[in-house]
């Protein structure tokens, strides 16, 4: 891979690539070696970020029946527990055109329902599955069995948040863009401020703040026309800066797992700093007079998507409305402006925009 950098306030930070990109590259290289019966030392893949990666192929093995190889994870200048992990993939051909992707040793297993998948499945997210399927099918469309293993995965899993997500036995194969951008907090905040400045120079009528790439997609799907800035977890810093820039309206769009935290007063929603998702649901359920049995079931949930499914099944949609109102009240208190005009749009991965 050619080194990819981002610049934050004059500081040069090296980007890396995700476990999903590693698995994709290993799968493609192994498929190529099996199909062509030739060894390769480097492999190129496309990523959803529209950045091509060329990665070194490690420990290649192949015969007429199967092939395998490894790619080493590189997190760049990000502080990532999975940095330098070996992601290994073994492939075999099928004859039915299907691509079956499975996790072996070191890849975590889902134990509770949620947006990760169903209990018993390997913790391999949808985007890496799509990337792998695309790359191996381009080698040959006969179909493939793809087995992902991470030799040190079970050991490293204890340094991740997987246990809180109901994932045991290893790490997750994840990544929505294929690229890891360094999470330097001060650098990221300075970049957010600069982007807000650029918008303010054109107009302070309205600004859209989205917490991630999915929020940006949601904004486009909703045909929102206000200029936007990706603010990651820095809600408090971003809205206060917008208030100081005298924007007339701020529209904040984010996943319920983030905004439920804001609704009870968390202005940095990173899970390592603030993990109050289920507590937020319990707070609003209690205010709504929900039965103890439902509250106990929510406490036992593995993530916000699972909790949301539960409260919707029990017809407590009003909780989402109250969370939205809570976000608005908290923001107005935070920026010390009772009439601050702010709109909150909450979505879930399964339900889309939560318009309750």
Architecture overview:
The protein is built from eleven helices and 20 strands. The chain has two domains: 5-180, CbiD-like (2-Layer Sandwich); 185-353, Beta-carbonic Anhydrase, Chain A. With 356 residues, the chain is an alpha/beta fold. It has a five-stranded mixed sheet with strand order 6-7-8-12-9. The chain has a five-stranded mixed sheet with strand order 17-16-18-19-20, sandwiched between helices. 36% of the residues lie in helices and 23% in strands. The mean pLDDT is 90.
Helix count, DSSP H or I runs of 4 or more residues:
11
CA(first)-CA(last) distance: 46 Å
Number of domains: 2
- Report the CATH C-level class of the largest domain: Alpha Beta
CATH structural fold name of the largest domain:
CbiD-like
Are there runs of 5+ residues with pLDDT below 50, and where?
Answer: none
Decide which structural class fits the backbone. alpha/beta
Strand order of the largest sheet: 6-7-8-12-9
The H-level CATH homologous superfamily of the largest domain, spelled out, is CbiD-like
Choose one word for the global shape: globular
Outline the biggest β-sheet.
5 strands, mixed
Percentage of residues assigned to helices: 25-40%
What average pLDDT do the residues reach? 90
- Tell me which CATH architecture of the largest domain applies here: 2-Layer Sandwich
| Quaternary organization | single chain
β-strand amount: 15-25%
* Cα Rg: 22 Å
Total E-strand runs: 20
